[in-house]
């Protein structure tokens, strides 16, 4: 499920699932969609990064940068994914693209 | 008018209305739209919460959670409103949904 | 699931569910979210109409106007729901609001 | 108010205003915002065209192309306005930009 | 450049490039972004399809379904790409997802 | 290129351009689009402000308020530009409109 990886994120996800099974079900559907399949997980996470930039969701960027790295993505791949988000969503996505590069720096891949 | 309830929010709303009557008129139109009518105010505020999640506007979430609580909404109602926002707007709304749950916690309704 | 009520809509929904269980699961989650609950189904469908106008989804408007009418909504209720969508989403939602009024005409409620 | 200039557009605008004064008030606020002021009407209409492309609203494009032409805009101005919309909103606005060029052709300005 | 593949699309793209070099440059940037690179073209086109569904751009769907097929994508890949768009963008993307399935039918891959 | 004017913004823009020429090219295209032309730069920057409010991009607001001021805009002009953004994008743009007024205060133009 998109979001930052802070304790608060985990705590609130659990709070939501505790109060209503909807959130556990939606989360499971999201996870199965991003699982290895006809499209390998690595490319799905990179797609998630492109969508996160195009739709300007910073927490989603954090989540999918981590997901892409965990799935074995190499430096030039997330950069290309960010470019796809920027060309699709235009200059209003630039702040989110910068945010994504700052996340890549934290993962020591730049 | 959507927004946080900080002093800054009030101060800026007044600043805007002082500089141009447009903002007072737009604000009045917004308030009359959310007033009790064929649809009771409580359900309108809950709808405002659903829209705030679907369109990912955190200040609007804060505003409509407060509005729904003031209009007598009970715990399961804002949770259902949040679900409607999430299913409509997808996983990119998840950070906003978490934000909404954090606001419900502050109102001691979880 | 939002969409027009043409045969094509039904046929494509089935085609999607046939090819991947994801679509049946997502559809079921959508339906349970809009079912009678703490918020009555009628108000949920009206909220769906507000979101459809605010996010400018014409097929969703058609779907939720029908849903609201089936759930017993009366004329002034969908009109108020449309207003909530317009004030939230601004003048770029006006074409969708007009589309919604045209749907209300077809249901003989104007 | 954004929209096509067909009879249907006028008829539905009247139908809406007849059923609820909200729509007349929102429409008046929209018109006064686009009236000659500190920013001349011509540039406001061109801005409306840029927003229409960036937010991908075809009926709004039709409305603001006509408004810009009526306010005395010359060929290169709407083209520059379209470019501002495309660079801001990215390649997902390209279909709307093409639609805008087709409207300019109809006004015999290309 | 996203869009339908009708003659009108080609004609308007040329008209735009003729009137202002911006459009040729933007188009070239879009094409180079989607070219084979660290991420293979096939996965980029599938990402383009996911973004098209998530942002609800039907002409973009047509363009990237064709692009993915031309790049050698097999049936289950575009279906997974559509799912990524739907889970990210929610039920308001359902009409666009149906549209995408209808395009897959035309390519005889369902 | 939209964004705040902090050191971090400059540093990240350079980091992006260093890693991939795409970002320098996209940035150059953005700058040429906003350069003096058939539409004077001042009105283009004001249009950029309207789009920033309508699409709710705070970093873009900061960038275009500064750009409009540098291009000689006077107080009532950015206020009218903000109004165009609000009427177009609705009450979900109100937090961004407040943010824009706070930026105008910093430029001592209110």
Specify Rg of chain A, calculated over alpha carbons. Answer: 14 Å
Name of the CATH homologous superfamily of chain A: AhpD-like
- Per DSSP, the total helix count of chain A is 6
CATH architecture of chain A: Up-down Bundle
State the total count of DSSP E strands of chain A.
Answer: 0
Number of domains of chain A: 1
Shape of chain A: globular
- What's the end-to-end separation of chain A, in Å? 26 Å
Main pleated-sheet profile of chain A: none
Sketch the topology of chain A as an H/E string, one letter per element.
HHHHHH
As a percent range, the share of helical residues of chain A equals over 70%
- Biggest interface, chains and residue tallies: A-E, 28 and 28 residues
């Amino acid at each position: 499920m998109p979001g930052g990886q802070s304790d608060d994120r985990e705590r609130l996800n659990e709070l939501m699932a505790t109060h209503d099974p909807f959130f556990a079900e939606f989360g499971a559907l999201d996870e199965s969609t991003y699982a290895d399949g006809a499209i390998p997980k690595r490319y799905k996470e990179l797609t998630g990064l492109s969508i996160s930039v195009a739709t300007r969701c910073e927490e989603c960027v954090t989540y999918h940068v981590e997901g892409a790295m965990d799935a074995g993505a190499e430096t030039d791949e997330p950069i290309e994914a960010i470019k796809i988000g920027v060309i699709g969503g235009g200059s209003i996505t630039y702040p989110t693209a910068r945010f994504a590069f700052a996340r890549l720096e934290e993962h020591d891949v730049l």
